[in-house]
């Protein structure tokens, strides 16, 4: 039996969003700051809790949209951003079970902890020195994943799984057209579609970024940028690759013009997976005023005549309506990571104090795959 009292954890810091801004860039410059954070007090926690010293926190597109209340799930300010994080267990409650030990490297489940969660752990965003989590929300780092890769795993790969497997029913031989393929969820979708046996055509606006997408498994890449910076006509490229048939599945995380052009190069009966709209982020009003004055629209004439299935793919909302979707999805993503079959690419890492630079890098499209902060 130890006669010494464990030394208290040192204080840390965290990022706080004090109020919802008009837009994410405005939030970065005005309503976000870094403040001292007392270490969580074990005496005040549940016996089933663990304290994680955060080593890496993902900076996601959703983290940005939340700062202006333009994301469908609104965090109430003041709050700490950071949907996903990974770190080291520095305290474990007496009833937290035997699978996780102090000193273990873990990732934290953003559906149960942090600003995207619905329960009692919303305050523990990952842009902080510490996160408190119920023991069921932490998982040992799978396989050879680093803290940075683990922090960039679940949101992106679970979204790819939900869209391609649960909604798109992608099977071997399908041709999948993936937009925003250099992004967090797009790059995950490239890897998951390859595991499912599909042929992957990936799109983007930068040859350099598309070269990385190809390294991660894309069979074909198409730069869709026109000379004026808009979206060029790429239907002929897709038809040439598919022998005139068109894509069987579209994974659309970009929206806007690219969605419309896609409808011109899909096969009859194709599945159009609506994942997001990175090119039109201001669908809802800023400052959390809701409404969708700038929502994307798809032409019903093409949907009808091509017999398309247009499928909305909200990875988190779907689990609220059907909780049975989550356990097999989470297990499969962790298994693929453990087997080394999926490997998140993280192009940018910053110290926590440079959260503004990290968020600007994500917003301006510099990032390939993941961007992380190191508290
Ligand atoms: N359905 C879900 O459950 C779910 C889950 C997570 C995210 N999402 C949504 O999916 C979308 C993508 O998320 P993400 O995390 O992958 O974002 P991300 O990492 O920022 O990637 C978005 C990609 O879109 C491409 N893009 C094309 N036009 C763009 C434009 N005008 N502005 C910015 N990017 C543009 C960029 O690639 P290039 O520069 O190569 O063109 C970029 O890499 C977002 O709308 C997000 O809200 C949905």
Task: Describe this protein's structure.
The protein is an alpha/beta fold. 26% of the residues lie in helices and 23% in strands. The protein has two domains: 12-153 and 344-374, Alpha-Beta Complex (Quinone Oxidoreductase, Chain A, domain 1); 158-319, Alpha-Beta Complex (Quinone Oxidoreductase, Chain A, domain 1). The chain is built from twelve helices and 15 strands. Strands 3, 4, 5, 6, 7, 14 and 15 form a seven-stranded mixed beta sheet that branches. A six-stranded parallel beta sheet has the order 10-9-8-11-12-13, sandwiched between helices. A two-stranded antiparallel sheet has the order 1-2. α1 (24-30) packs antiparallel against α12 (355-363). Bound molecules: NADP nicotinamide-adenine-dinucleotide phosphate (NAP). The site of NADP nicotinamide-adenine-dinucleotide phosphate has 28 residues, from α2, α4 and α5. NADP nicotinamide-adenine-dinucleotide phosphate binds at residues 60-62, 155, 159, 180, 182-186, 204-206, 209, 253-254, 275-279, 313-316, 362, 365.
CATH class of the largest domain: Alpha Beta
Query: Structural class per helix/strand content?
Result: alpha/beta
Distance between the termini: 34 Å
CATH architecture of the largest domain: Alpha-Beta Complex
Ligand inventory: NADP nicotinamide-adenine-dinucleotide phosphate
- Any idea what the CATH superfamily of the largest domain is called? Medium-chain alcohol dehydrogenases, catalytic domain
Helix content bin: 25-40%
Number of individual domains: 2
């Amino acid at each position: 039996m130890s006669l010494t009292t464990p030394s208290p954890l040192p204080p840390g810091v965290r990022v706080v969003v004090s109020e919802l801004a008009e837009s994410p860039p405005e939030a970065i410059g005005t309503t976000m700051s870094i403040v001292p954070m007392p270490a969580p007090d074990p005496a005040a926690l549940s016996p089933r809790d663990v304290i994680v010293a955060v080593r890496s926190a993902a900076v996601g597109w959703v983290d940005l949209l939340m700062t202006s209340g333009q994301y469908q799930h609104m965090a109430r300010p003041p709050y700490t951003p950071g949907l996903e994080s990974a770190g080291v267990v520095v305290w474990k409650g007496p009833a937290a079970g035997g699978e996780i030990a102090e000193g273990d490297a873990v990732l934290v489940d953003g559906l149960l902890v942090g600003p995207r969660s619905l329960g009692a752990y919303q305050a523990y965003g990952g842009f902080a020195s510490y996160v408190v989590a119920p023991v069921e929300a932490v998982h040992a780092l799978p396989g050879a994943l680093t803290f940075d890769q683990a922090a960039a795993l679940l949101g992106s790969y679970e979204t790819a799984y939900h869209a391609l497997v649960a909604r798109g029913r992608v099977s071997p031989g399908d041709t999948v057209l993936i937009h925003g393929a250099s992004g967090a969820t797009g790059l995950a979708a490239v890897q998951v579609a390859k595991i499912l046996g599909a042929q992957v055509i990936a799109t983007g606006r930068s040859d350099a970024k598309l070269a990385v997408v190809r390294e991660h498994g894309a069979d074909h890449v198409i730069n869709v940028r026109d000379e004026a910076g808009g979206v060029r006509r790429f239907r002929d490229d897709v038809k040439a690759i598919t022998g005139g048939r068109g894509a069987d599945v579209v994974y659309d995380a970009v929206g806007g013009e690219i969605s419309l052009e896609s409808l011109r190069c899909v096969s009859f009966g194709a599945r159009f997976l609506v994942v997001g709209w990175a090119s039109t982020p201001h669908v809802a009003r800023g400052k959390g005023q809701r409404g969708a004055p700038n929502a994307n629209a798809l032409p019903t004439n093409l949907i009808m005549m091509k017999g398309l299935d247009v499928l909305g793919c909200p990875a988190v909302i779907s689990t609220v309506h059907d909780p049975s979707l989550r356990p097999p999805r989470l297990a499969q993503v962790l298994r693929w990571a453990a087997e080394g079959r999926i490997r998140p690419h993280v192009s940018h890492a910053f110290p926590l104090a440079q959260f503004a630079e990290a968020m600007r890098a994500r917003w301006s499209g510099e990032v390939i795959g993941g961007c992380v902060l190191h508290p």
